[in-house]
Amino acid sequence: MNSLSLDMVRTLAASLQDWQTDENIHAVLIDSSTPKAFCAGGDIYFFHEVACAGLQGGSALLEDFFTEEYTLNHLIHHYNKPYIAILDGIVMGGGMGITQSSAPTCIRIVTERTRMAMPEVKIGLFPDVGGGYFLSHLSGEIGTYLGLTGEIIGAADALHAGLAHVFVPRKALPDLVRILGSVSDRDYAAAITAFAAPYQTQISPDECVLAKHRADIDRHFSYDTVEEIVRSLQADATPFAQKTLENLLQRSPLMVSVTLEQIRRAKTMSIADCLRMERTMVRRCFEHGEVVEGIRALAIDKDQQPQWRPASFEAVTKEMIAPFFTAAWSDYAHPLRMLA
């Protein structure tokens, strides 16, 4: 559902670049063309097809996809005009990458149908597209929890986490878009905030799982190894901890461990450095093959039985994690070397 393809990435990038210098364009509004999703992620069928052809990380198209997608993410993080995203429906992976901008002009709107996640660990990948950056900058250990579990959250949790700015019910979106077309002072943030104000009471505190379990999340996910996190969850008999543990144990042990290292490293990085790190990581992922197996099990054969390597968290070593952060290119040859 609106999964990002290379053609889509190129179309978005070209349009955004042109609009940056077009004096007739005052703001950008990005919305969905389908009723069920904003963007459910990248084109994983394409990833699997290329990898199974024996090309893996060396495929020119695969290399181009991630290089150009991450360049697009960087552009959005530094966009010089208001960038308004209506996140109605499923918003995952690549969809998060084109909306979770750190630019002060970015405004994210959620609805009652928003289902948001960075679920890459489910397919043997990691939260890329700048995920290390925006997850590591969330309050407490919310980003660690979301990155390691791939948990899906709704509008209330997205607002609590800082992954969205305002709630607007889906039925009111056409009125909001009409109002944005008539903003004369170009203060789109103020116009959106004023429009959304009457609807904020429709978000019940009871819907916010992250707020309800915030202390538990911060306690269990504060460790710097996944083994410690697992032990902490095992020692907690509450339903939330046990459900979280059950979800965690279904993910790729290696990529959950790699993701924890990614989030910890990204905390002190710029968005450009984070994207460069992730560009290296994604190449290493396809070299290893964990993501190919994950896509096979969850999206191609759909047997829901991925054969992870290794199969347990106890078997993951520092020596297995380290290669994902080992430079794949010299600094002067890195495909994202021009990002600042």
TrEMBL record:
GO terms for biological process: L-valine catabolic process. It comes from the Bacteria. It holds the Pfam family ECH_2. The keyword Hydrolase applies. Keywords: Hydrolase. One of its GO terms (molecular function) is 3-hydroxyisobutyryl-CoA hydrolase activity. Residues 1-325 form the Enoyl-CoA hydratase/isomerase domain. InterPro entries: ClpP/crotonase-like_dom_sf, ECH_dom, HIBYL-CoA-H. NCBIfam families: PRK05617.1. This is 3-hydroxyisobutyryl-CoA hydrolase. It comes from Oxalicibacterium faecigallinarum.
